[in-house]
Specification:
This is Competence/damage-inducible protein A. The protein is an alpha/beta fold. Helices cover 35% and strands 27% of the residues.
Length: 252
């Protein structure tokens, strides 16, 4: 682990069903949280349709400016699952049947009606790829260099992330602490800015809400350094108290 530099990742969510609103994405949160633990920051997310050109463009742009690129969706057995083809085109390689993936699928479907052309599609990978184990549904995920091609179904994605845990190079994990307060964030905007400015290595996010007829906000302090994090949190609490506001440790 290299603590001195920040490792970044991007995520491309692929699927017409996401853009149409028929399916609500749940992968951004779980991938972001998992990446934080690995010491990697999720820097950007793009949602694209099941369209070759759109996928190719997103993959080539995002893989070039991040250490890692993750994709979810579009690696199933049907004709509209074109993620593998698009990423192979982006990389300038052929699509091939991965022998290990084929063997896994043949074994998985042995008691589930047998293999067929649709199911065998899930063994297709960009040439040169490795596999990401999938204990949930047989069909493996795919790794090609710094690109990780995963399922769109959240619980299957979670299993693939579990298989990748500890295998990626990252920096120091991003730590966070939340403080809540019944105050309009506009009334403490200067305090938030000044506190962050005077605590190098810390960031403060402000998340307002309206509950029970009252305005409040939760403030999340983030840092890779536990000591700096604690100092910044304490300064924020003292600053709120100095302005006449009580804070709630852990948030409201």
């Amino acid at each position: 682990m290299t603590e001195s530099r920040i490792y970044t990742a991007a995520l491309v969510i692929i699927g017409d069903e996401i853009l149409s609103g028929r399916t609500q994405d749940k992968n951004v949160s779980q991938i972001a949280l998992w990446l934080n633990i690995q010491g990697i920051r999720l820097k950007e997310v793009r949602v694209v349709a099941d369209d070759m050109d759109a996928i190719i463009e997103a993959v080539n742009i995002l893989r070039a400016r991040n250490d890692y690129l993750f994709t979810t969706g579009g690696i199933g057995p049907t004709h509209d699952d074109i993620t593998v083809d698009a990423i192979a085109a982006a990389l300038g390689v052929d699509v091939v049947i991965h022998p290990e993936a084929s063997a896994v699928l043949h074994k998985y479907y042995e008691t589930r009606g047998g293999i067929n052309p649709g199911r065998l599609r899930m063994a297709r990978v960009p040439d040169g790829a490795d596999l990401i184990p999938n204990k949930m549904s047989g069909a493996p995920g795919i790794r090609h260099g710094n690109i990780f091609i995963m399922a769109g179904v959240p619980h299957i994605t979670a299993g693939m992330l579990d298989a990748l845990t500890g295998t990626l190079e990252g920096g120091a994990p991003l730590l966070s602490h939340q403080v809540g307060c019944w105050v309009a964030e506009s009334e403490v905007a200067k305090l938030l800015g000044d506190t962050e400015k005077h605590h190098e290595g810390c960031q403060i996010g402000s998340y307002p809400f309206f509950r029970d007829g009252k305005v409040g906000a939760n403030f999340v302090v983030r840092s890779t350094d536990a000591h700096k994090l604690n100092e910044c949190v304490e300064a924020l609490r003292l600053g709120l108290r100095g302005l006449g506001y009580d804070s709630v440790d852990g948030g409201i």
